Structures are given as C-alpha cells and as structure tokens.
Predict the 3D structure of the following.
Amino acid sequence: MVIFKRVVAAMLMVLVVSVARAELVVEVTQGVEAPTSVAVVPFGNDTGQALPEDVAAIVQQDLGRSGFFQPMLRDNMLGFPTRSEDIFFRDWRLAKMDYVIIGRARAQDDGQIRIEFELHDVLREQAMLSEQVTTARDNLRDAAHLVADRLFERLTGLKGAFSTRIVYVTAEQLGPKRQRFRLQMADWDGARARTILESSEPILSPVWSMDGSKLAYVSFETGKPSIYVQYLASGRRERIQSFPGLNGAPAWSPDGNQLALVLSRDGNPEVYVLDLRSRQLQRITRHYGIDTEPSWSPDGRSLIFTSDRGGQPQIYQLDLASRDLKRLTFQGNYNARGRLTQDGRFLAMVHRSGGGGNGFDIAVQDLKTDRVDVLTQSAMAESPSIAPNGSVVIYATQEGTKGVLAAVSLDGRVQFRMPAVSGDVREPAWSPYLR
Amino acid sequence: MQAVNLTKTLVLSAVVALAAGCSTTSTTTDGGVAGAGNGTGTGGASSYGVSGGGVSGGAVVTAEDLKQLRTVFYFDFDKAVVRQDGFNDLEAHARYLSQNPSASVRLEGHADERGTREYNIALGERRAKSVERLLVVNGASASQVETVSYGEEKPAVLGHDAQSWSQNRRVELKYLSK
C-alpha cells in the first residue's frame, strides 16, 4: 500500500493529474513525499566479451535524474543478482528498497546484443516487468535509455523521456574578436554530443518541431539575424524569409504548420505568425514595448510571450481566436521566456524575485493556483526547456565564469549538471518524444 | 514611460547639440548651412532647427575630426535612453553624415548578459534605434544608418561583474563608408 501511494505521489509530481487531485499536487511540490527507492543491480554479461557501456549505470542515472526515484548506491548492495531466483528479497527489504531491477546481456547468433531486464516489487516479492531489448553492440546507450523508459512507464504510468535528445549552443573565444559558435545535439543526459552547425557568428534560439524532424534557429551568419530551418536527417537548411531588423525567437506551432517569430520590421519587436504553407505573415502583437519569446500553448490556441509593456518584462498569454490578452506573471520584477508543460498547466520561466534577490532563477508557476516555486539558486539561469513528460526542466546557467547546462526536476528536488564540454554552453532545447 | 523618456532624450539632444554647435563656431568656418530655419548668428553660426526637421548644419566635421569622436555609447540596465554625455559626439557624427551624403554607418546594439537572450536582442535593437533616432534628428538621413542587434552574444568585456556589464550595455557606431 505504501508503495502504491508512492507511485501515485510520483505520478503527481509530474503534474499531469486531474483537477480533482489539485490539492495533492501542492503537497508534493512542497517536497513532502520521498522519492521511490530502487536498486539497479549491475547487469550480468553472458556475451563472453566486455561491453562498451555499463547499461545498468545508465538506467540508474536516468531514473535518479528524473526526480522520481532514489537509486541505491552500488557500494551499499549486498549482492549483485542477475536472475530472479538469486534475489534475496529480505536483504533488499532491510535496505529499504521498494524495487529491485536486474538484467543481463546475451549475445545473439546474428551478433546483436540482447538485454533482458526485470523489475521486482520487494514487498510483494513479485516480478512486475520482464522484457528484452535487442541492439547492435555499439548502440548500447540507446538500449539503456529504452530500458529506463520502460521501467519508468511501468512504475509511474508516465511515458519515459530518456530516449529524447537535446540541442544547445556552445561558444568559444578563439581570439580577441574571434568566436566559434556551434549548434550541438546530444542524448538527454548530454552524452554523444555532435555538432550540427558551426559558425563564426552567433547562433541562438534553437527549437524543435513537434515531430522531432527539424529545428528552427537564429543565425547571424550573414551579419544580420535570420531564421533558418534545418532538417535533421539530411542536414539540409533553408532560410525563412528575412525582414529588416530583428528576425528572432522562432517557435513551431503544435501541428508544425506555423512558426511564431519576432520581427521589428514595423518599428519595434512584435510577435508574428508565419504560415509555412501559404507563407502568409500575420501580426499578433501591437505595442510600442518589446514583445518577444513567443511559445505556443500545447493546444495551439494561444501564444505566451514576454513583454515589457508594463514597465518590466512579464509573461502574457494571447488567445489567437479572440485576441484576448492576459498577463500571467505578477510575482517578481523579471519573468521571461516562458514555456508550458504539455498539459498546459505549468509555466517554467526565467524569474527574478526583486527585493533582496538580484539573480535570475528558473521558476515554475502553477497556472491554476498561481503558486510560484523558484527551482534554482542561481545568479544567471536562463533558457528553461521542459522534458516532453514534464518531469525535468533543463536550463543554462553559469559555474564560475563558464556557461553550463543544468537540470532540475519540476518539483525542485533533484538538480544535476550536464557533463562539461568545451566553451560556454547555452540555449538548451529539449526534443519531443522521438519514438 | 519609454515614450516619455524618448521625448525627453530628443529635446535634450537638441539642446545639447545647440550648445555644442555654438561652442565650435568661433574656431571653424561656417559650413553646411542647409535645411530650414537658417541661423542668424553673426559669428559664423549656422542653422539650428530645434524641432521638426531637427538640427542640421553646424561646423564642418572632417574625416579627421571623426577620429576624435566617441563611437561607443553606453546604457543603463534594461534601458535604451542615450546618456547625455554621448550627445555631443553623436551630434557631430550626425553632422558629418549630413555633410557627406555618401557616408553611412552601422549601429550595433548590445546588452549585458543578464536576462534572457531574445529579450536582450530586442533591448539591443531598441538601443541602436535610440542612437539612430538621435542621428536622424540631428541631420543624418535614415538611409545612411543601418542597425543590427547582437543582444548579449558579443560582449566587449568577458567579465561577470557590474563593471563588465556596464561596458557591455552599448551601441557601437561603425562607419561602413566615409
């Protein structure tokens, strides 16, 4: 029963629950519930050869970083069972584990590797899941993330987001006036990074299309900002029609047919929507203040954007049909670059509290209750991007004098740093589900 | 609020430009007496239209003079109002542009690293536009001025403190042709 409650709590933490349970969400975001404890036992290797990746370690890291689970350290494990009959449930119960995950790798006749894995409920002494994934030897990371996705879904009822990718921009100072900008793509945990665009001029604001097949971003490669679309499979690029002044902050509509963007061709920065089929441009905002950083609501019916029309940057929502405008943020003197969770309920943003605090943090606002939770203690956090299942927010911040990527679970409890790469790292963007 | 500030800026710029113009008239010859509202000063002073057509004319600014003029103008946090200490030099740049119709400048707007990147791009553009407006009000033609904003992407100084930030909130004026 306790376990069941914890699983429910875990589900609530991802904040995609029905209205009826709203009061429980508050409890969870206050950090009352402990994460579910799991032991990911090192997987057995029956292939007769050393494997290039430690699959169980990747699974353990994925589950731990989601914020839902507290994995047991390997050093504390009394044994490393790889088969269900070797699990001594009493030991794991004493270690206060709710679940034990075991597995093993086997070689197939065709040279592929088969990962068999099992999830066991410690209290009930029951198997909850027993599956296998087959992959090429050099593709074990994909297999590990897939295993983590399956376990996550079985335990929380939510689709795992461990097989997703991120893109981000790195900047390196090569000389007094020489910089190198790179657009890079990596696994969600930062592993297997590769460069997909390189330029001596700034690159910024990468965003994924909802089908995960292409990116839009801003590049200054011509000396002026232009929006480009890059197809990931082929690397083919096309430049969206450019206008004098700003061309920035692209955002795909959920159906992929429209691109919200910011142009200053009419005098100052305004939000527009470009229909990618008809190439028709529609002006959305009309104000002498700065209007920028549009992002679509998941139902595609409204845009949220940053505007300083009230004197400081705050986030507004505009209904595209009725043109009704609503200011969403009131706490703090700087709220910008909002992103909504897929259920439309939570708004992640860059936030500065004002008063004593002078730093820029990542905050999440519950749009039902307007409660604001500041998730970071950072001087310079920016560019929040939410996992497709709403569990984790990735963002850019500074460590010492270096720009780095970090992430925090939406309840603020689990924070972690992405692996270091050369140069300043910024502008992370989380992909949608890719399968 | 911004509009009010801007109006104030423009009025101030006109006033300062007038003062600057007067102070130079004793040492230079009259030049570029153009536009409406020609001055009637006797000491070789020229025209100073304070409203509408803006200030035009004034002493000749040579390409050599340009070397003495500031080309970087700084701003307060989250503000796009040109500081008064930049007015004299901007007015002289404007005068040079009005006297040399084939000359043109590029105004590059920048922001410090605080705040979000796209907002800072917008802020950098607003700063560049403020400078552009001052140039045009003081006699440059809009076709001689182009603006681009880099936001926080090209800091002048790489530090992460108040001193560095103040040097990064800027507009750089670069001649494309003289």
